Amino acid sequence: MKTINCQTCRAHLPGYAARELPPRLRALVGAHLDACPACYGIYRRQRLLMGELEHTLPLVGQPDLAGLGRIWSAVQVEMKRPRPSAFQRVSKRQGATALLLLLVLLLPWSFDAPSMTRALPLLPTPAQETTQRAIAMATEGCACAASSRAPLAVPSATPPAQPNYVPELNDALSGPAATETP
Amino acid sequence: MQPEPIEGIIQRCLSGEQLAYAALYDQFAPGIYRLCYSLLLNREDAEDVVQETFVYAFKNLHRFDPARASLKTWLYTIAICRCRNLYRRNRRPMLNISELLHQIPLAPHSEHPEAALARQSVREAVEAALYALNPRLREAVVLRYGHGLTFREIADVMDCPQKTAESRVRLAHDALRGRLGPAGQGLLEELVSIGLDW
């Protein structure tokens, strides 16, 4: 038959003494108590203490009728009070916490963001860069600017030249027939 | 005359009958008060918690599910939650010594003065022992011996496994054995010899 050790037996002693253990476990604890004088001694002391507590604990906190009547009056007053709205139910502490959290979230956005924006200069657009360089060339002189700087990329209205493009030859090859629609 | 079943009283409460609320209160308030006082060991705190418990229970009675727990277990669960909130606020229960001294019950005419004195001493010893216990152990031992709940019910009320409830009661035994030994057991034997009817 399976047996249990002293530690398991002592853990189940309150349930055993109260007759609330399952039958199989109860049989195991009973068999161990029969065989172990140390656990049986603990069980006997526990039974004494249980009897003592069952007698004495119900004496603690016996209510008086006046006290219970006072509580009932207070309960009735509370029951008649209208139920507060959801907004009113939020306590002051919860409201303060929410407000603090909102401030903490907003603080970096409202305080740090502009200074960071100021700290980083904007990159110039190509048009601005071209204008600035043209102004620099005008003030310093074209020769100096051309010698010391890279060639200026000035946008032109005409498309870029294509290699092997000969206007006369292309016009002759296409001719008026090629250009006319049937 | 048989008492009305709890389910019937609850139905009457839900239909708005004020007398039904009073019937529920009369039935459960003494037990809830004893529980709260045993855990908090302070009369004012216990009265506040009883009031909060019943106000909450009556306002949320439509949420009570008889399939999950009995009304007694449900009320005890609410009361213990409120008591725990109070522990957290106060950290330690405040034992009002002067209040205890003024609450010495007068001995009935038929009671021996020695028996009354012994009974008072036992109660004081028990309260002092409860005061020294860890709150969780105190809850377990009060529910078990002060209110006769089974370990299954204690586990439901304390929201823990049944084995944990058994362990807490066992640990409370170990803690109480040393404290109650000289005052409790000796006086109990004396009471038995005097023939006091508890």
What report would you give on this structure?
The complex is a heterodimer of chains A (182) and B (198). Chain A is an all-alpha fold. Helices cover 70% and strands 0% of the residues of chain A. Chain A has 10 helices and no strands. Chain A has helices at residues 6-11, 13-17, 23-35, 37-56, 65-80, 86-89, 92-119, 126-140, 142-148, 167-179. By secondary structure, chain B is mainly alpha-helical. Chain B has helices at 6-14, 18-40, 43-59, 71-90, 97-102, 113-132, 135-146, 151-158, 162-194. Chain B is globular, with a radius of gyration of 19 Å. Chain B starts with 5 loop residues before the first helix and ends with a helix. Residues 97-108 and 190-198 of chain B have low confidence and may be disordered. At the A-B interface, α2, α4 and α5 of A face α2, α3, α6, α7 and α9 of B.
Write the layout of secondary structure elements.
The complex is a heterodimer of chains A (182) and B (198).
Chain A: H1 6-11, H2 13-17, H3 23-35, H4 37-56, H5 65-80, H6 86-89, H7 92-119, H8 126-140, H9 142-148, H10 167-179
Chain B: H1 6-14, H2 18-40, H3 43-59, H4 71-90, H5 97-102, H6 113-132, H7 135-146, H8 151-158, H9 162-194
Helix pairs in contact in B: 1-2, 2-3, 2-4, 2-7, 3-4, 4-8, 6-9, 7-9, 8-9
Proportion of residues in helical segments of chain B = over 70%
| Number of helical segments with 4 or more residues of chain A | 10
Q: What is the CA–CA distance across the termini of chain A?
A: 112 Å
The largest sheet of chain B, given as strand count, sense and whether it forms a barrel, is: none
From the N-terminal CA to the C-terminal CA of chain B, the straight-line distance is 27 Å
What share of residues are in beta strands of chain B? under 5%
Low-confidence stretches of chain A: 177-182
